[in-house]
Amino acid sequence: MHREKLRRLSPDTEATRLIQNLVEERRKLVDEKTAQSNRLEAHLKIYFPQIPQWFGDVDSPLVCALLERWSALEALQKARPDALRSFFRKHQCRKEELIESRIKAIGEAMPALKDRAVVEAQLAVVKVLVQVIQVLHQGIEDFNRQIQEAAEAHPDFFIFESLPGAGAVMAPRLLAAFGSQREHYRNAAEVQTLSGIAPVTESSGKSSWIHFRFACSKFVRQSFHEWAALSITQSQWARAYYELQCRRGKRHHAAVRALAFKWIRIIFRCWKERVAYDEKVYLAALAQHNSPLLAATKIAL
Q: CB of 284 within 8 A of CB of 301?
């Protein structure tokens, strides 16, 4: 062991740890909601497959409210057209053409299954799943409010809020990933490695290979990866860099990780110096250093 290389581990500030715990627990609720939504869709496909076809997201408030009121096609078809129109408008569906097309589709639909033994069991499960999803949806909304309040009160939030594509969800997660202890990381490479964004190089004899890093915080890696993908549509140079990686033969996720690797260096500098990110400043820096990225992607300044 090299004890001289060990650094004292001290807890972050209470404000930072609150955000770290909130965003991680929120993600667990989102994953649970996704799992229950998949279960709901699987059961609907057995006896009511029209719902996923008509509405797409079976876990939306509209679909949950509809299934809570009319859990089977037969019951839905007995509803008066005016009642359906009122229901759709009440649940934020205001396109008249879409409402009328749905009402027509409901009237013309045929039951997928008439075996009451199976249908009754599916109805019972669907009712429970709808309630679970509604509770999870409300819980996630409550977490969103708590996270927003905690993040806006944090002195470093302005840095992560300035990042393109971060928004209300990813900005607090990125803040949680970096924390507030500037002395904890000596350079950006440590963040890249600890987060799992930096790949691992292994060698044996004359052979060497690079592979995905597994020993890391999956949630932190996920945070950087998901945000880097979102930044592609919001940042001019990020989109150009991603496309350049794809042209070089990298698949989507590998190209996104390469972009996240580059982003971490930029965020680290902003975080260390306590300044917000500015796209124009970074593009000017690329031009000043005659960056190959700028030339290859033809970004106009």
A: yes
Phi-psi label, residue 113: left if phi above 0, alpha if psi -120 to 50, beta otherwise: beta
Domain residue ranges in the chain:
14-152, 157-297
Distance CA 156, CA 47 (A): 51
CA–chain centroid gap for 78, Å, is: 39
Residue ranges in the chain whose pLDDT is less than 50:
300-301
pLDDT at 216: 80
Q: Please report the pLDDT score of residue 277 as a whole number.
A: 97
Q: What pLDDT score was predicted for residue 29? A: 97
Q: What angle do CA 25, 30, 35 make, to 5 degrees?
A: 125
CATH of domain 14-152: 1.10.287.4070
Residue showing tokens 């890696």: 221
Distance separating alpha carbons of residues 88 and 17, to the nearest angstrom: 42
Instruction: Please give the pLDDT value at position 297.
Output: 56
What residue type is 243 in one-letter code?
A: E
Q: Compute the distance between CA of residue 239 and CA of residue 296 in angstroms, rounded to an integer.
A: 12
